[in-house]
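Dissemination and training. As part of the outreach component of the grant, students in the summer workshop were shown how a complex can be specified as a set of sequence lines and then modelled as a single object. The example used during the hands-on session is reproduced here so that future cohorts can follow it. Participants entered these lines:
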Amino acid sequence: MPSHAAARRPGGRSGRVLAAIHASVGELMGEGADKITFPVIAERAGVNPTTLYRRWSNVNALLEEVAVAALTRDGESAPDTGSLERDLTEWADIIARDITRPERVRYLRAMLAARVEAVSHCPVTETRRDQAAEMVRRARERGEPTPTASQILDHVIAPLYHHVVFALRVDHEYARRLVRDVLAMVR
Amino acid sequence: MPSHAAARRPGGRSGRVLAAIHASVGELMGEGADKITFPVIAERAGVNPTTLYRRWSNVNALLEEVAVAALTRDGESAPDTGSLERDLTEWADIIARDITRPERVRYLRAMLAARVEAVSHCPVTETRRDQAAEMVRRARERGEPTPTASQILDHVIAPLYHHVVFALRVDHEYARRLVRDVLAMVR
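and obtained this result:
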């Protein structure tokens, strides 16, 4: 069986095994599967369940890993237009378009459902913080007044995610309004 | 059986039947019950399942109703201290304390899990908007510069809920910082 072969030879194949596991979790989430367990994922991915039990402490840890990977991999460099307002507007637009895609909404909900304990570190948020800090750094070098990266997270990113998670409307105009507001704090 | 009596006599008993249904849903959510279906709720509440099928189009509609009721019923009048900054600070503190209680977090997650379709109207948000509008109205009468109620929702309420939903830290200092930021927009 291919599952046993994959489990027995983690070396050169581990990348492909991991990709198959991630893809299977993604498929199951996309199908709105009711019960996503290690055996269900293992069957779909064609790997031995012990591979999963060995690598992740529980299924929620795996679901979060997949959700974070899906939510942070695309279009991830911060815009560099020469003005903080344009950078932030473009960035907020990209994020708004991205997180409102139905498959992203499903991932986001799956990640939040998996996250029952308080976390001190959220990889999705940290990626956005790094991008915000980069845009702020460039704006300061140009001598523009800038909010902090934390303020950009609180007042642009948080409301966008809040609207998506609460199933409220998110559009271009909303993203722009948030950017105008956060810049008004430092005017 | 009491269930049949309740179902047959909706008049004087309908309030008590509704309360029993809400309480049962609350108990099941609190227990982290895996499958909350109409038959499960009906059994717990001691009512006939047809009562539920007749009143709610599906179980998610009932879960959302219960979650909204739980999230909006307590401590719901907006503070009136004579200054918008103090009003907002007190209000943000009350909300931060309320929505971080473990049973509230569970309700919030249950509500979001039930909300799979986009909504144009979110009763939790509308309650907060009414309170914000009331504080803004009083501040304007006193001649204070004020953000709009929408800005208060976007920049105080949204980040608080975002942190709770993402299981990030929410405390008094965070609530205060959000209020200072939204007031800085109009200074």
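Chain B has two domains: 2-55, 77-184. Students were then asked to discuss how this feature might be tested experimentally.
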